[in-house]
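Fold this sequence, please.
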Amino acid sequence: MVHVYLLDDHEVVRRGLRELLEVESDIVVVGESGSALEATRRIPALRPDVMVLDARLPDGSGIDVCRDVRSVDPSIVGLILTSYDDDDALRAAVLAGAAGYLLKDVRGADLVNSIRRVAGGDHLLDADVVARLRTGWGRDVEDPRLAQLSPQERRILEHIAQGLTNRQIGASMSLAEKTVKNYVTSVLAKMGMESRTQAAVYIASHGPQGGRRAP
């Protein structure tokens, strides 16, 4: 059996997904929510095989949920299901460890098949997608915002973009978790960012030193 958790802020969408999946003999929906915060709390406890996550929610992002849950239990697979064909969100989903990124106009049978595939270990983001993300990337001068960061803060920024939790960053850099939290707050403020996802997208687009990557 494939155990699935649904995250979408629209009840009608969740109900439709549940009805679509539960007619399948090998799939069971073990939980659902419309809140990123609730999902982040419940999913590790329920331990589904696949979490189907809406990218944009009133209180956060399914991409953040994917990263946070997988930092606790990497065996749980993330599948982003969204209405937005957004390269920045797709980059962030890749960095968050999502196994797939699907648009909500996907056919029901294709969605069911995708869930089965990622539960079986397949990755739906192939080399062609990665190549598309890199289209148009060129070299540029260093972002002046990076000049505000100390070498330690730059390392923190890179670790944030890798999807590491504060605890994991602390272990890697031999820092207390509270110290890392203070660093993260400072780095995001200096960079004018509101979330860790923005940091992930920034590094994916610009590279760790702030100059845009070559194609």
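The beta strands are 2-7, 27-33, 50-53, 56-57, 60-61, 77-82, 100-103. The longest helix spans residues 177-191.
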